């Protein structure tokens, strides 16, 4: 156990250092979602006048979106980082050492999750500076951060799976539009009951991203909404389990000694 | 003049051939605008019920104009990526050695960008009409809208080429894409200018793209608007970025 923790620590240190040394891995996940948040809040504030809109501040409604976009960046960064390790032969050399698979995976995700955690705090800080109010109070903020972290971990694990499976950073970059489609075809801009087009509402209802957004959103707007939180956590945990299991399996294949 | 045309034709043909024969270039250029159109027009249509939303031709047409101009702008930017890639691979250097008139190279890339925008624009128009987009403007208005989209394509391409000529690496991609992205999205994307709020409203008021997108929306709905201002602004921007781009070309020549 001590050995495993030591190995995780070493790999995490490498991953965090790699991430911190590349501004391209840190700046876009922070700036891009904040820019889009500004655009959405300024552009869609009029939507709060629609009958049935759950809050009179679009900022409160839209604050969930940056967390999702940050998670998408986590997926791309995690996948690209592992794919690069495959491309450069680092994983093959590692296969010759007693390094455990779990340590490699957890360590690699460590760097990405550090950026995700940092980004989450910045989104919240900017949100509060712009007048965000969290209906569930301080406890709600903690729950929001935990849920956002789980969402980011789930997406990062899926990114890691694709990176390990494809072994190509270019293939991982190709994932970004796919993830973006999931985000756009969800309840990100309007609550599901207010989506006018039935086909869009149906897709949004089947899209798991809607429930992640609604889980985060619920603590801000409603307070303690058990159903929304249960769905949000359930979908995020399932994504984490599937992603980590897939990545672990792909890693096993990659680390086979030939 | 013949030499200029020969170079422009050759460069344009190569770019258009690459674009139409490589699914990695073609598909994202087509799918993304269609996706944005679907997501905005489909997902946000109830925004048109908000008090003060006074666009008469429907939310699909309202969003169509933005997506058309956006796809035209990104057509220009993505052609800029090709210019940067040509420099990175050393192809552009050989091209400059071979071309008797280097402005022909610039014209060729611009022509390719325009063709690219036309291909995507036609598809976008077809899909919008199939899903029942209302068009209240006449043939002249639609011609005006298409012309506006092509000028936007030229402006974005000239800006992106200027960056590509100066930096000569594909790593300059974000420097071409981000400013265009920000200018597009800090305009009235989802609602008319009067319904924007906060500092985004202040930014949108001074954003030159606002006049172009609002002009385009007036054209599709057949409403009267300040033609001289919208097209004058578009041509002025094209002139400014032509200077920027030609000076970039001279810098690339000087760099050898």
Please name the defining characteristics of this protein.
heterodimer, A: 258 residues, mainly alpha, elongated, B: 256 residues, 10 helices
Instruction: Give, in order, the helices and strands of chain A.
Output: HHHHHHHHHHHH
Low-confidence stretches of chain A: none
Instruction: Give the amount of beta strand of chain B, in percent.
Output: under 5%
Query: Structural class of the helices, strands and pairings of chain B?
Result: mainly alpha
Summarize the amount of helix of chain B as a percent range. Answer: over 70%
Q: How many E strands of chain B?
A: 0
Overall 3D geometry of chain B? elongated
**Whole-angstrom Rg of chain A:** 19 Å
- Structural class call of chain A reads mainly alpha
The N- and C-terminal alpha carbons of chain A lie at a distance of 28 Å
Describe what you observe in this structure.
The complex is a heterodimer of chains A (258) and B (256). In chain A, helix 2 (23-44) runs antiparallel to helix 4 and helix 11 crosses helix 12. Chain A is 78% helix and 0% strand. Chain A has twelve helices and no strands. The mean pLDDT of chain A is 89. Chain A has one domain (2-254). Chain B has 256 residues and is mostly helical. Chain B has one domain (2-255). Chain B has helices at 2-21, 23-43, 59-88, 91-98, 102-130, 139-167, 173-185, 198-206, 208-220, 227-255. Chain B starts with a helix and ends with a helix. The chains are: A mainly alpha (258), B mainly alpha (256). The A-B interface holds A 28, 35-36, 38-47, 49-50, 177, 181, 184-185, 189-190, 194-197, 199-200, 204 and B 28, 31-32, 35-36, 39, 42-47, 49-53, 174, 182, 185-186, 188-191, 195-201, 203-204.
Care to give the gist of this entry?
In chain A, α1 crosses α6, α4 (64-87) packs parallel to α7 (137-166) and α7 (137-166) runs parallel beside α12 (226-254). Chain A has helices at residues 2-20, 23-44, 58-62, 64-87, 90-95, 101-129, 137-166, 169-173, 175-184, 198-206, 208-221, 226-254.
């Amino acid at each position: 156990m001590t050995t495993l923790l030591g190995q995780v620590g070493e790999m995490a240190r490498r991953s965090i250092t790699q991430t911190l040394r590349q501004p391209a891995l840190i700046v876009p996940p922070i700036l891009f979602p904040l820019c889009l948040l500004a655009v959405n809040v300024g552009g869609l504030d009029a939507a709060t006048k629609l009958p049935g809109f759950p809050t009179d501040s679009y900022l409160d409604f839209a604050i969930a979106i940056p967390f999702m976009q940050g998670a998408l960046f986590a997926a791309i960064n995690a996948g690209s980082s592992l794919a690069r390790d495959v491309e450069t032969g680092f994983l093959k050399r590692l296969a010759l050492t007693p390094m455990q698979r779990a340590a490699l995976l957890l360590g690699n995700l460590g760097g990405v999750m550090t950026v995700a955690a940092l980004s989450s705090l910045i989104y919240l800080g900017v949100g509060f500076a712009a007048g965000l109010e969290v209906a569930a109070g301080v406890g709600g903020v903690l729950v929001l951060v935990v849920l956002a972290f789980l969402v980011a971990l789930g997406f990062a694990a899926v990114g890691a799976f694709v990176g390990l499976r494809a072994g190509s950073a270019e293939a991982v970059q190709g994932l970004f539009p796919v993830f973006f489609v999931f985000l756009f075809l969800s309840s990100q801009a309007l609550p599901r009951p207010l989506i006018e087009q039935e086909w869009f509402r149906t897709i949004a209802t089947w899209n798991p991203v809607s429930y992640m957004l609604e889980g985060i959103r619920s603590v801000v707007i409603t307070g303690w909404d058990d159903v929304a939180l249960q769905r949000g956590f359930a979908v995020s945990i399932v994504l984490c389990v599937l992603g980590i299991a897939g990545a672990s399996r792909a890693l096993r294949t990659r680390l086979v000694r030939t | 003049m013949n030499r200029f045309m020969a170079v422009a034709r050759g460069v344009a043909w190569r770019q258009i051939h690459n674009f139409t024969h490589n699914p990695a270039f073609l598909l994202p250029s087509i799918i993304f605008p269609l996706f944005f159109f679907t997501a905005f027009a489909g997902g946000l249509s109830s925004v048109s019920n908000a008090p003060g939303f006074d666009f008469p031709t429907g939310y699909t047409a309202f969003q169509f104009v933005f997506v058309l101009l956006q796809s035209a702008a990104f057509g220009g930017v993505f052609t800029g990526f090709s210019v940067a890639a040509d420099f990175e691979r050393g192809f552009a250097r050989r091209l400059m050695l071979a071309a008797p008139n280097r402005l022909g190279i610039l014209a060729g890339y611009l022509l390719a960008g325009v063709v690219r925008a036309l291909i995507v624009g036609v598809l976008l128009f077809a899909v919008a009409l199939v899903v029942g987009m209302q068009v209240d403007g006449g043939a002249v208005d639609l011609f005006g809208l298409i012309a506006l989209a092509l000028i936007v394509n030229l402006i974005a391409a000239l800006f992106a080429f200027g960056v590509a000529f100066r930096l000569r690496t594909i790593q300059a991609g974000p420097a071409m894409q981000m400013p265009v992205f920000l200018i597009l999205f800090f305009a009235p994307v989802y609602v008319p200018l009067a319904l924007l709020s906060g500092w985004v409203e202040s930014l949108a008021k001074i954003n030159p793209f606002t006049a172009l997108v609002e002009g385009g929306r007036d054209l599709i709905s057949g409403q009267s608007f300040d033609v001289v201002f919208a097209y004058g602004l578009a041509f002025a921007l094209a002139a400014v970025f032509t200077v920027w781009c030609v000076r970039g070309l001279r810098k690339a020549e000087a760099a050898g």
